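Researcher: Next sequence.
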Amino acid sequence: MDTNSRPTSPSISRTLATTPGQRVRRALGVVTPLAWTLLVVGLLASTVGFVAGWEELIAVGVGAFVLVTVALAFVIGRADLEVAIEVQPQRVTAGERAVAQVTSTNRAITPLFGATMELTVGETAAEFRLPPIGPGGSHEELFVLPTVRRAVIPVGPATTVRSDPLGIMRRTSTWTDVVPLFVHPVTTPLAELGTGFIRDLEGQATNQVSRADVAFHTLREYQPGDDRRLIHWLSTARLGELMVRQFVDTRRSHLAVVVDGDRRAYVDDEFETAVSVAASLGRRVLLDEQDLSMVVAGDRIPTHSGTELLDGLAAVRTGGRRIGLGPAVDRVFRVGSGFSVAVLISGSAAAFADLRGAAVRFPPDVRVLLLRVDHATPTTFQPFGGQHLLTLQHLDDLAQLLWTAAS
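Model: Next structure:
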């Protein structure tokens, strides 16, 4: 899958609902705590002033009411907008450029003046002032979205804000839903994994002899109970005794990728590199049309397509020990079976005992590669008991490291 060829984002728009209950809630919502305080002060000051004949208190009360009344004039009236958010593109690789376009259309018969638009982007909000928009007119605003790190960034909702200069009254209206921006992990291209790493596109031959399968092995003498359809008649005629075909069991190649979710196993940005390794392996396996099961930080990653895979990886985060490497291996057995190769990925601070404990959970006929991301140690490959220990310093070294492990 080419991540540069991505579907365009949907344009999300919504007009403000106008049911009676919503109108009442919006009307009460314009009154800020400061406005309620002024109203209470005005009422108390006016009452005490009239009772006590204290003109200064009456003036304070009247002034408070005047401030609230003037502030109300700034937010009175109903805006009739149609706002649309479009994120282009909606899926990017970390570091690529993405923009959000906010289009505001005035559907009222009167001009729109003095509105401020707020667009929520992740945990922050971008704010801009809407210019005067005539009836039927539109205004477009572009925002560059943060795409430095892998994430799923919610873009929206878009909200208009109208208030007075003192902030006594504040009227907000939400016009759109949230549009997600998927920032995919960085990947590195890998050669086909079918040679040495995952053998035989149709199925990986095992050492178990079978009476019937697709991988022909040899000829042997006929034994009672053998399927007569497997008799090799040319050899039988030449040797003068019944000979049958002998096969070996095969299985479809199935790769398990498990990434340690214990944040204590990683130093600095090693977890990001670990996710990039998983993404690179997953994309290559899907391109090879092999089976794939993946668990990252305890989360099952969908593997039906490259887009689903990268979308799922964009959202994963590290957590506590419950989603460490061992529990993650247990989880991968719940989501898949019949693995031929397993790649277990962790960081430089992971204990060797934890790596070994996770590796031995796989059956002996599964080839297990232990890959430690260590930004401070050169990329190396070495045997580790019955498994192979791979140390990866940079993501760009992954292709060469896998070639070394496969040879």
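Model: The CA atoms of residues 163 and 170 lie 4 Å apart. Residues 254-406 form a domain with the Rossmann fold fold (CATH 3.40.50.410).
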